[in-house]
Specification:
Blueprint (H helix, E strand, L loop, with lengths): L2 H5 L3 E3 L2 E3 L1 H19 L57 H10 L6 E7 L4 E6 H18 L6 E5 L4 H12 L3 E5 L5 H11 L3 E4 L2 H8 L8 E4 L21
Parallel strand pairs: 5-6, 5-7, 7-8
Antiparallel strand pairs: 1-2, 3-4
Helix pairs in contact: 4-5
Length: about 250
Amino acid sequence: MTLFSVLNQPISIAGFEIPKGVTLTLGILIATVFFQMMLPKPKNKGHAYGEQGGPPGTVPDPSSRGRHFITRKEDKLEIVPAKDENSVGGQKAFTIPECFGMILDSKKGDKVAMRHERGADMKWSEWTWNEYHDQIRTAAKAMIKLGLEENGCCNIIGFNSPEWFIANCAAIFSNAKSAGIYTTNSPTACEYVTNHSEAEIIVVEDRMQLDKFLSIKVPKVEAIIVYDGEVKASDSKGKKIPGNDLE
Protein backbone atom coordinates (compact mmCIF):
# COMPACT_ATOMS: atom_id res chain seq x y z
CA MET A 1 0.00 0.00 0.00
CA THR A 2 1.47 3.35 -1.04
CA LEU A 3 1.46 6.61 0.94
CA PHE A 4 -0.86 8.13 -1.67
CA SER A 5 -3.40 5.34 -1.27
CA VAL A 6 -3.31 5.73 2.52
CA LEU A 7 -3.88 9.48 2.35
CA ASN A 8 -6.61 9.00 -0.23
CA GLN A 9 -8.78 7.04 2.23
CA PRO A 10 -11.36 8.55 4.60
CA ILE A 11 -10.27 8.60 8.24
CA SER A 12 -12.09 9.06 11.53
CA ILE A 13 -10.75 11.38 14.24
CA ALA A 14 -12.59 11.66 17.57
CA GLY A 15 -15.71 10.30 15.96
CA PHE A 16 -15.63 12.71 13.03
CA GLU A 17 -15.12 11.20 9.59
CA ILE A 18 -12.85 13.16 7.23
CA PRO A 19 -13.55 12.55 3.51
CA LYS A 20 -10.73 11.08 1.45
CA GLY A 21 -10.21 14.23 -0.64
CA VAL A 22 -9.75 16.37 2.46
CA THR A 23 -7.42 13.76 3.95
CA LEU A 24 -5.12 13.96 0.93
CA THR A 25 -5.07 17.78 1.05
CA LEU A 26 -4.23 17.82 4.76
CA GLY A 27 -1.48 15.27 4.21
CA ILE A 28 0.16 17.36 1.49
CA LEU A 29 -0.09 20.52 3.63
CA ILE A 30 1.49 18.85 6.66
CA ALA A 31 4.29 17.39 4.54
CA THR A 32 5.00 20.78 2.96
CA VAL A 33 5.23 22.51 6.35
CA PHE A 34 7.48 19.73 7.67
CA PHE A 35 9.93 19.95 4.77
CA GLN A 36 10.00 23.77 4.97
CA MET A 37 10.99 23.50 8.63
CA MET A 38 13.74 21.02 7.78
CA LEU A 39 15.30 23.15 5.03
CA PRO A 40 18.35 25.25 6.06
CA LYS A 41 17.63 28.95 6.44
CA PRO A 42 19.31 31.18 3.81
CA LYS A 43 22.11 33.41 5.01
CA ASN A 44 21.11 37.02 5.49
CA LYS A 45 22.89 39.14 2.90
CA GLY A 46 21.81 42.32 4.62
CA HIS A 47 20.62 45.74 3.54
CA ALA A 48 22.28 49.12 3.50
CA TYR A 49 21.60 49.38 7.20
CA GLY A 50 19.40 47.72 9.77
CA GLU A 51 19.94 44.02 9.09
CA GLN A 52 23.69 44.50 8.79
CA GLY A 53 23.71 46.28 12.10
CA GLY A 54 25.84 49.11 10.77
CA PRO A 55 25.25 52.78 11.53
CA PRO A 56 23.18 54.94 9.15
CA GLY A 57 25.15 56.06 6.16
CA THR A 58 27.19 52.88 5.81
CA VAL A 59 27.42 51.08 2.49
CA PRO A 60 26.99 47.30 2.24
CA ASP A 61 29.87 45.06 1.25
CA PRO A 62 30.12 45.26 -2.59
CA SER A 63 30.78 41.51 -2.66
CA SER A 64 27.27 40.94 -1.34
CA ARG A 65 24.77 40.40 -4.15
CA GLY A 66 21.65 40.65 -2.04
CA ARG A 67 18.95 43.29 -2.17
CA HIS A 68 20.14 46.75 -1.11
CA PHE A 69 18.18 49.90 -0.45
CA ILE A 70 18.23 53.08 1.60
CA THR A 71 15.35 55.21 2.76
CA ARG A 72 17.01 58.29 4.28
CA LYS A 73 18.09 61.15 2.06
CA GLU A 74 21.39 61.65 3.91
CA ASP A 75 22.48 58.07 3.25
CA LYS A 76 24.41 56.95 0.19
CA LEU A 77 24.44 53.61 -1.59
CA GLU A 78 27.12 52.41 -3.97
CA ILE A 79 25.87 51.04 -7.29
CA VAL A 80 27.20 47.50 -7.55
CA PRO A 81 27.36 46.35 -11.21
CA ALA A 82 26.85 42.78 -12.28
CA LYS A 83 29.93 40.59 -12.57
CA ASP A 84 29.34 40.03 -16.28
CA GLU A 85 30.53 43.24 -17.96
CA ASN A 86 28.77 42.25 -21.18
CA SER A 87 25.36 42.11 -19.51
CA VAL A 88 23.00 45.07 -19.12
CA GLY A 89 23.60 45.12 -15.36
CA GLY A 90 27.34 45.10 -15.91
CA GLN A 91 27.44 48.27 -17.96
CA LYS A 92 28.73 51.51 -16.47
CA ALA A 93 26.02 53.52 -14.76
CA PHE A 94 25.35 57.13 -15.75
CA THR A 95 23.08 59.85 -14.42
CA ILE A 96 20.15 61.56 -16.15
CA PRO A 97 22.17 64.79 -16.67
CA GLU A 98 24.99 62.71 -18.14
CA CYS A 99 22.48 61.04 -20.46
CA PHE A 100 21.36 64.44 -21.75
CA GLY A 101 25.00 65.42 -22.18
CA MET A 102 25.69 62.32 -24.29
CA ILE A 103 22.71 63.11 -26.52
CA LEU A 104 23.81 66.71 -27.05
CA ASP A 105 27.45 65.69 -27.61
CA SER A 106 26.31 63.30 -30.33
CA LYS A 107 24.96 66.32 -32.24
CA LYS A 108 21.35 65.19 -31.90
CA GLY A 109 20.24 68.31 -30.07
CA ASP A 110 18.10 69.47 -33.00
CA LYS A 111 16.21 66.16 -33.10
CA VAL A 112 12.69 66.07 -31.67
CA ALA A 113 12.69 64.81 -28.07
CA MET A 114 9.07 65.31 -27.14
CA ARG A 115 5.69 65.96 -28.77
CA HIS A 116 2.50 67.00 -27.05
CA GLU A 117 -1.05 67.56 -28.29
CA ARG A 118 -3.02 70.27 -26.52
CA GLY A 119 -5.40 73.18 -26.94
CA ALA A 120 -8.91 73.44 -28.33
CA ASP A 121 -7.62 72.64 -31.81
CA MET A 122 -5.49 69.74 -30.45
CA LYS A 123 -2.40 71.09 -32.15
CA TRP A 124 0.88 69.24 -31.75
CA SER A 125 3.84 71.04 -30.15
CA GLU A 126 7.43 69.85 -30.33
CA TRP A 127 10.53 70.17 -28.16
CA THR A 128 14.00 69.41 -29.45
CA TRP A 129 16.62 67.92 -27.14
CA ASN A 130 18.28 71.34 -26.92
CA GLU A 131 15.00 73.03 -25.94
CA TYR A 132 14.14 70.24 -23.52
CA HIS A 133 17.58 70.49 -21.88
CA ASP A 134 17.47 74.31 -21.66
CA GLN A 135 14.03 74.33 -20.02
CA ILE A 136 15.09 71.66 -17.54
CA ARG A 137 18.13 73.73 -16.54
CA THR A 138 16.03 76.88 -16.19
CA ALA A 139 13.47 75.05 -14.04
CA ALA A 140 16.24 73.50 -11.94
CA LYS A 141 17.81 76.88 -11.24
CA ALA A 142 14.40 78.25 -10.29
CA MET A 143 13.77 75.38 -7.89
CA ILE A 144 17.15 75.86 -6.21
CA LYS A 145 16.50 79.60 -5.94
CA LEU A 146 13.08 78.92 -4.40
CA GLY A 147 14.49 76.62 -1.73
CA LEU A 148 14.98 73.11 -3.12
CA GLU A 149 17.93 71.65 -1.19
CA GLU A 150 20.46 69.03 -2.19
CA ASN A 151 18.90 65.58 -1.67
CA GLY A 152 15.61 67.41 -1.13
CA CYS A 153 12.28 66.62 -2.75
CA CYS A 154 9.88 68.16 -5.25
CA ASN A 155 6.28 66.97 -5.44
CA ILE A 156 4.51 67.02 -8.82
CA ILE A 157 0.77 66.67 -9.30
CA GLY A 158 -0.85 66.86 -12.70
CA PHE A 159 -1.68 64.85 -15.81
CA ASN A 160 0.99 63.80 -18.31
CA SER A 161 2.47 66.90 -19.91
CA PRO A 162 5.83 68.37 -20.95
CA GLU A 163 5.80 70.46 -17.77
CA TRP A 164 5.53 67.28 -15.67
CA PHE A 165 8.62 65.75 -17.30
CA ILE A 166 10.54 69.03 -17.19
CA ALA A 167 9.80 69.41 -13.48
CA ASN A 168 10.80 65.80 -12.80
CA CYS A 169 14.14 66.15 -14.61
CA ALA A 170 14.70 69.59 -13.06
CA ALA A 171 14.55 68.04 -9.59
CA ILE A 172 17.14 65.46 -10.68
CA PHE A 173 19.36 68.16 -12.22
CA SER A 174 19.15 69.96 -8.85
CA ASN A 175 20.64 66.87 -7.17
CA ALA A 176 17.27 66.27 -5.55
CA LYS A 177 14.42 63.88 -6.22
CA SER A 178 10.78 64.10 -7.27
CA ALA A 179 7.73 62.37 -5.82
CA GLY A 180 4.63 62.33 -7.98
CA ILE A 181 1.18 62.63 -6.45
CA TYR A 182 -1.98 61.18 -7.97
CA THR A 183 -4.25 63.82 -9.45
CA THR A 184 -7.21 62.16 -7.71
CA ASN A 185 -5.64 62.43 -4.24
CA SER A 186 -7.67 64.25 -1.63
CA PRO A 187 -6.13 67.22 0.22
CA THR A 188 -5.49 64.94 3.22
CA ALA A 189 -3.68 62.40 1.02
CA CYS A 190 -1.61 65.18 -0.56
CA GLU A 191 -0.70 66.46 2.89
CA TYR A 192 0.56 63.02 3.90
CA VAL A 193 2.69 62.53 0.76
CA THR A 194 4.20 66.03 0.93
CA ASN A 195 5.07 65.85 4.62
CA HIS A 196 6.30 62.26 4.43
CA SER A 197 8.59 63.06 1.45
CA GLU A 198 9.69 66.31 3.17
CA ALA A 199 9.10 68.21 -0.07
CA GLU A 200 10.31 71.81 -0.32
CA ILE A 201 8.81 72.53 -3.75
CA ILE A 202 5.41 71.54 -5.15
CA VAL A 203 4.60 71.72 -8.86
CA VAL A 204 0.86 71.67 -9.60
CA GLU A 205 -1.02 71.65 -12.88
CA ASP A 206 -3.91 74.01 -12.25
CA ARG A 207 -6.13 75.86 -9.82
CA MET A 208 -7.93 72.73 -8.66
CA GLN A 209 -4.69 71.09 -7.56
CA LEU A 210 -3.40 74.33 -6.03
CA ASP A 211 -6.47 74.66 -3.82
CA LYS A 212 -5.72 71.27 -2.26
CA PHE A 213 -2.38 72.50 -0.94
CA LEU A 214 -3.69 75.88 0.16
CA SER A 215 -6.10 74.06 2.48
CA ILE A 216 -3.55 71.84 4.27
CA LYS A 217 -0.47 72.19 6.48
CA VAL A 218 2.83 71.55 4.72
CA PRO A 219 5.41 73.36 6.91
CA LYS A 220 8.53 72.39 4.91
CA VAL A 221 7.22 73.69 1.57
CA GLU A 222 9.06 76.79 0.34
CA ALA A 223 7.12 77.40 -2.88
CA ILE A 224 4.27 76.10 -5.05
CA ILE A 225 4.64 76.39 -8.83
CA VAL A 226 1.52 76.42 -11.02
CA TYR A 227 2.15 75.71 -14.70
CA ASP A 228 -1.37 75.99 -16.12
CA GLY A 229 -4.17 78.22 -14.95
CA GLU A 230 -4.60 81.49 -13.11
CA VAL A 231 -3.13 82.32 -9.72
CA LYS A 232 -4.49 85.10 -7.52
CA ALA A 233 -2.18 87.65 -5.93
CA SER A 234 -3.53 86.62 -2.55
CA ASP A 235 -2.27 83.06 -3.15
CA SER A 236 1.37 84.12 -3.07
CA LYS A 237 3.22 84.89 0.12
CA GLY A 238 6.68 84.92 -1.44
CA LYS A 239 8.71 87.33 -3.54
CA LYS A 240 9.03 87.50 -7.29
CA ILE A 241 12.39 86.40 -8.66
CA PRO A 242 13.84 88.31 -11.64
CA GLY A 243 14.63 86.05 -14.57
CA ASN A 244 18.31 87.04 -14.69
CA ASP A 245 18.76 85.85 -11.11
CA LEU A 246 18.09 82.28 -12.28
CA GLU A 247 21.33 82.27 -14.22
